Amino acid sequence: MSTLGIDIGGSTTVAVVLERGRVLGTQQLPTEPGEAVVATAVTAARRVLTATGIATAALEGVGLGVPGIVDADRSRVRSAVNLGIDSLDIGAAVAGGLGVPVTVDNDVRVSVLGARHLMGEPAGALAFVGLGTGIAAGVAYGDRVLRGESGVAGEIGHIPIPGAGERCRCGQHGCLETVAAGWALAQRWGGPTPAAGMLAAAERGDERGVRDWQAFTGGLAHAIRSLVLTTGVDTVLIGGGVSGLGAPLAEGIGAQLRTWASASPLLAALDVPSRIRLLPVGAQAGAVGAALLGATVARHAAAD
């Protein structure tokens, strides 16, 4: 059976078709902000279905991942600040455009399922940290993904970071996103690849580049340390567009974690750096995870 997954990010929207767990086709479009995200999602979905020759009626299920707080109805999203959405019944809207039911969840909660599937990780305790326009984490214990009563579990991008003080898009001051999210890096460095520009500046010894790089990797290290200490995950998978920095990113985060561990027997015993893995560049964990979600919900519905 085929399943369709859609991942709406702050910069791009990706749709994939899975056939027996294998990616059969992918389509990607720039994300239009506000309620226009619906048209983008529907267009990307239709294009990948056309390219793979899969009829909508033949789909086993459809899942959609979106940044923001997803209500218990698995359809409405609220406070999707990086999409310019206050409240939108996105599941019903996309379902109307495609003509099939759509199950919605937060993008990193579906991404943790997709990342585990793509990396072949065992179904233990693991987290996915998405570094893109925004930052958040998904935590899974086996097949159970942590949501929280109000659906905000994993919003590490809005944890205050020591030394940070700028106002965040969420209204707080000093959030991790203000030093490490794609939107914040774009404000500071501009260009098509602001994170890469920051890294290049740091590597050539530019004072501003070094300062921002240290704040960036230090902030992420702080969040990952907090994530491991509070959830006990064995593996932390890092993905999203900004993770394309590759080895320097892992090394920078690891260096800060090892510095803290040198003064803490607890952190030394946990060996947090050894738990970190980077997803391959181009891995579409969000869309794959959304497809897996859609299939799971459809199977449960059929069994009831």
UniProtKB/TrEMBL annotation:
Secretion signal span: none
PANTHER family: BIFUNCTIONAL UDP-N-ACETYLGLUCOSAMINE 2-EPIMERASE_N-ACETYLMANNOSAMINE KINASE, ROK (REPRESSOR, ORF, KINASE) FAMILY
UniProt superkingdom: Bacteria
Family: Belongs to the ROK (NagC/XylR) family.
Source species of the chain: Agrococcus baldri
UniProt feature coiled coil, ranges: none
InterPro entries: ATPase_NBD (IPR043129), ROK (IPR000600)
Protein name per UniProt: NagC family transcriptional regulator
Cross-referenced Pfam families: ROK
